[in-house]
Amino acid sequence: METLEETELCFPQLLNTSCTRSKVPQFETLFTYIVLSSVSLLTVSLNLLVVISISHFKKLHTPTNLLLLSLAVSDFFVGLLMLFQIIFIDGCWFLGDLMCILYQYLLYIITSASVGTMVLISVDRYVAICDPLHYSTKITQKTVKIWVCLCWIYSVIYPGLNLKDNLKQPGRYNSCFGECVVLLNYVMGIVDLIFSFIVPIILIVLLYMRVFVVAVSQARVMRSHIAAVRLQGSMKVTAKKSELKAARTLGVVVVVFIMCLCPYYCVSLTGLASKDTMFNASSAVFVLCLFYLNSCINPMIYAFFYPWFRKSVKFIVTLKILTSNSHEANIL
């Protein structure tokens, strides 16, 4: 009986004041460890490649790539913070109340910055396709740097306001030792849902719908022009490919974003789970995995689609990046 009690308590020496471990089958726990560890490693690796590529090569210092750099930085830290959730997988938090609230606060900051940067990327693409003649004057490196700074400042201040009670007294909502609970009141929870998910998803969908319509329209105009000059034979296929590529790329961006974030926020809205207790149920683990998976997929859909990324990865893997003047290499 004593052995059973020790295996079920987070802190056996504290007896009645200790939290109990979640009773999860060993296979399920091992599987979850492997999946989350793999996603964490992949997220960190992919985003680190993007950060090194854009930071190192001078040719990649463009407004759009600065936004990709901001996104990669935030997603890189999301991958690192996943390690804390892996530690918390059995329902026991061993790092103390202060680390609990700091972890939650950092996660809020980084996730908010990631979502905000995705909105900025959609604005950048909207101007580039819908108003290409004025793009170079409206979207400059200085403008983008200001956007990114404001995005990160907002991402630091907003979560601080949401978590101010928790920051003042870490662990105030814990009912036992080994628990990591962060609570928002109902009003703040609704506000967080609106500004962290509903508003960004509406902006991204609306902007990308407009971009898609303009891109398809331009492709059709090009196809008509090609037909007029009697080059339909070889160029018509190119026009069709352009339409399909625009539809596929923009569709992936919107659908993946919705698929990864919508389930998590739907669960949060109904109050069936929260960020601190998400790992206590197998169904909730799946929801949170999707939430984190977005940070892993971002470098794939924003960077892997660019040829320069594949070239820069070759430079990094073959260590050519260590040679003198490698930052001047033309990898475009």
Automatic annotation (TrEMBL):
GO terms for cellular component: plasma membrane. It comes from the Eukaryota. GO terms for molecular function: trace-amine receptor activity. Residues 46-302 form the G-protein coupled receptors family 1 profile domain. Its main location: membrane. It is a multi-pass membrane protein. The keyword Amino-acid biosynthesis does not apply. The chain crosses the membrane at residues 30-54, 66-89, 101-123, 144-161, 193-216, 250-272, 284-305. InterPro entries: GPCR_Rhodpsn, GPCR_Rhodpsn_7TM, TAAR. Keywords: Cell membrane, G-protein coupled receptor, Membrane, Receptor, Transducer, Transmembrane, Transmembrane helix. It is found in: Cell membrane. PANTHER family: HISTAMINE RECEPTOR-RELATED G-PROTEIN COUPLED RECEPTOR, TRACE AMINE ASSOCIATED RECEPTOR 19P-RELATED. Belongs to the G-protein coupled receptor 1 family. This is G-protein coupled receptors family 1 profile domain-containing protein. It comes from Channa striata.
